[in-house]
Amino acid sequence: MDILSINIFSLIAFILAAYSVMANDAVQTLGTFIRSNRRILKWYQMFFFASAIMIFTVWNSWFFNDGDISYSRLDKIPFYDPTSWMIIIPPLVLVILTRFGIPISTTFIILSSFASQLVFNKMLIKSFLGYGLAAIVAFFVWMIITKFFHQDKYPMSRETKKNWRIFQFITTAFLWYSWLSHDVANIAVYLPRSMDIYSVIIVIATFVVFLLFMFYEKGGKIQKIVKTKSGTKNVRAATLIDLVYVIILMYFKQYNNIPMSTTWVFIGLLTGRELAISVIDSGKVGLRSTIPIVVMDLAKVLFGLVTGIAMLLLLQGKF
Q1: Three-state SS for 317?
Q2: pLDDT above 70 coverage of the chain, percent
Q3: Do residues 186 and 304 make contact, with C-beta atoms less than 8 angstroms apart?
């Protein structure tokens, strides 16, 4: 099906969703990579690396899934082309919140408008599991990592940094691929489930443009979330964050095809990591100073959930 044949409202919603997902969720995936390499690589060098993986990922799904770019994440959410302007509301809200630097779940805000109550509940349960699993795994992993790989106690030689940076590129590539195979669904929901080759080229070009803008902004306001976390400019710490993140995403990718909030996984991962570091470094004192940060991060994603539920109640049956 030709992308240009869909309703103008769906087309506008697609463009807004593509921007907001790239500017909000993509930074959560690439943020540690950007921060730890900002003094080594130019922003456009990192962009070329990320865009090449993105093009491969989207094209791979389109080629092997009969024109579908969502990796079958939308099997339970059929495509329909509404004629109401209200379809623009969710991605527009997401754009506004993104510009304010709020790391919200695009999955809940975007897909809630299309998903049935049953599918939405399954998305919610899967996302809660993702948050909890990420927090628990990250806590125990970083209890070990902080003890044996503390960046101050165990400084790296130039050769060691080089090896870690190579490992980071590999890990980031797998993470970016895994994230895209989850969250492209949040954009593709506005598109036909099967597209012709000209349509997928237009879609990829749109993604590339917004990804370029995100790198040009050096991550934008969402990047501030990454900057507040301990040691994320260190290549070793950044690589280990991405490694744990990709393992969790790959697990849930194989679990089922129900979409989930990767934002919740990301925040859960950072939560467990920060708690582990604070416990080892400063004990109860560090824990008391870390808990308010953890609560603030959780409050932001809960705000995204409430917004998604509001979209569900407002728009279900409206188009």
Answers
A1: coil
A2: 85
A3: no
